[in-house]
Amino acid sequence: MTDTTLTPSQVQAYLAEIFPQFDATITHIDRNGAVLELPTGEQHLRPGGTVSGPTLMALADAAMYVAVLGNIGKVALAVTTNLNINFYRKPEPGKLRAEARILKMGARLAVGDVLLYSEGIDQSVAHVTITYSIPPPAKAVE
Amino acid sequence: MTDTTLTPSQVQAYLAEIFPQFDATITHIDRNGAVLELPTGEQHLRPGGTVSGPTLMALADAAMYVAVLGNIGKVALAVTTNLNINFYRKPEPGKLRAEARILKMGARLAVGDVLLYSEGIDQSVAHVTITYSIPPPAKAVE
Amino acid sequence: MTDTTLTPSQVQAYLAEIFPQFDATITHIDRNGAVLELPTGEQHLRPGGTVSGPTLMALADAAMYVAVLGNIGKVALAVTTNLNINFYRKPEPGKLRAEARILKMGARLAVGDVLLYSEGIDQSVAHVTITYSIPPPAKAVE
Amino acid sequence: MTDTTLTPSQVQAYLAEIFPQFDATITHIDRNGAVLELPTGEQHLRPGGTVSGPTLMALADAAMYVAVLGNIGKVALAVTTNLNINFYRKPEPGKLRAEARILKMGARLAVGDVLLYSEGIDQSVAHVTITYSIPPPAKAVE
Fold it and tell me: Which of B29, C11, D35, D78 is deepest in the core (most CB within 10 A)?
């Protein structure tokens, strides 16, 4: 477990390396959470012009992963064990924003929630709770 | 659907009438949420002295119901359709506090989340997301 | 971790000891799951004569706990970390039945789901997924 | 709402039209559920060679949508309101299979669950519960 002084750009570079499909921008990160943004394109849309559910879930999952990294440092092998999402407003094409908050950073499990926002809509469009399983210290990177 | 100027004591009295087992105290209520407190007793405890999961779930469910009443007025027939809870710290005997927040108050569904706190522990012990199904207006009370 | 040859009556007796509020009857138990029944009374009902959500959640949680005991033997300290319930039919007063199925029995986490049935209704009334955290072997009982 | 005699190939053709990114194959469909298969490629993998969580979530969501279509006929505007997933075994590269089961087909909400399987692993790798909101009849297609 490293000291947590990772900056958004450090985590961004780390993710580009281990997780090449990662296409969001980290705009904030601290011990309690992280904020990510994702400009949506054609590949994220559904019939009717709404952003697809999997796009929202993937962004929320990434935001929680970044929040975990921000809290405990680089842990490549943390894996999602549970994700629960409520979709309650229709997201519009345009930028998405995910605000992840850590509720508990345990030795074995990290629990947090994520609010998702869609450009042009003041209130959140979806809420996600996520649990990550943290590997034993021996498996931590560096 | 009545104008929402219900006070904690009005909702408390209403719940005492329609839902006699309700044993929590409403300490705050507004259009965006509600706060409830519950002093735990022997009947709420589990082996090891922790508060039982069902006690936490029941309190969270009640807090969201109160928050819905606070937002749309007396709706006796609103029913829970989904509840997801993560338990991540061990609650201690003593007072529990539930802080419910409405994320979306729709015509058919209300979505919110609840943070649960245990006396003597600064951070939350559990997080709950809840969806209520709202009956068509004809079924609203008064 | 004991060999798993626990019978319903052994688990019933064990639960009566460690968990005195337990009021359900175990009718079946094997390595893959368990079945519990609960006769509902006034204390389980809500306005309108339906069975309360917390009653369903408590029964499902107990059924999953029994299934875990059936699989790995007596583990007093297993704790629920996540519970997600969908309520989709109105349960009637009368006997409830919970059918728990283990989906994964891991070293650290057990995952399963539970279907809840209400006397007189053929189809299930609610579905629950539950994760239990399993304590390290040193904490196992006996 | 059409009579439900849709075949896998009819639903496959319908989805190709309204939802061009749909890349799974429908192998079975009836009033109670549906089975879909997805061959995974590089774009579905994560560091370490496992299939990404969003791939699993997207496949489960599609399987439930197909099951809803199989039950009530073509309803383009049904939307996911809640999805809860537990990931408990590591899926391998290769074909994924999703088995969706309808638990409740209501007038307003459809609830079901999905078991996900990974080629070469007998037991399921993830379990998903999903709620779809069904639009009022006027919005049904055809």
Answer: B29
Is A2 part of a structural domain of the chain? no
Number of residue pairs across A and B with CB atoms under 8 Å?
42
Residues A73 and D89: their CA atoms lie apart, in Å, by 25
Tokens 């005699």 belong to D5
- Considering only CB atoms, A108 lies closest to which of C82, C108, C131, namely C108
CA dist., res. C64 & res. C33, Å (int): 8
Write down the H helix ranges in B1-142. Answer: 8-18, 53-72
Residue C17 placed within a domain: yes
First to last CA, chain C: 8
Whether D112 and D64 have beta carbons less than 8 Å apart is answered as yes
Nearest C-alpha of chain A: how many angstroms from B26? 24
- The count of structural domains within chain B is 1
Query: Biggest alpha carbon distance in chain D?
Result: 48
* Domain hosting residue A54, numbered range: 8-139
For residue D107, the domain's CATH number is: 3.10.129.10
- Rounded CA gap, A117 and C128, in Å? 29
Q: In sequence order, what are the residues at sequence separation of 6 or more whose Cβ sits closer than 8 angstroms to the Cβ of residue A64?
A: A80, A100, A110, A112, A114, A128, A130, A132
Instruction: Quick: pLDDT tens for B68-118.
Output: 998 888 776 789 999 999 999 999 999 999 999 999 999 899 999 999 999
- For A93-116, write each residue's pLDDT tens digit: 999 999 999 999 998 999 999 999
Sign of torsion, CA A5 A110 B120 B131? positive
Per DSSP, A20 falls in state: T
Quote helix, strand, coil % in chain D, to nearest 5: 25, 35, 35
Q: Cβ contacts (< 8 Å) between A129 and chain B: which residues? A: 84, 86, 113, 127, 129
Residues of chain C with Cβ-Cβ distance to D124 below 8 Å are 103
User: Is D3 a domain residue?
Assistant: no
The shortest CB-CB distance from B54 to any of C61, C76, C77 is to C61
Chains near D (3 or more Cβ pairs under 8 Å): A, B, C
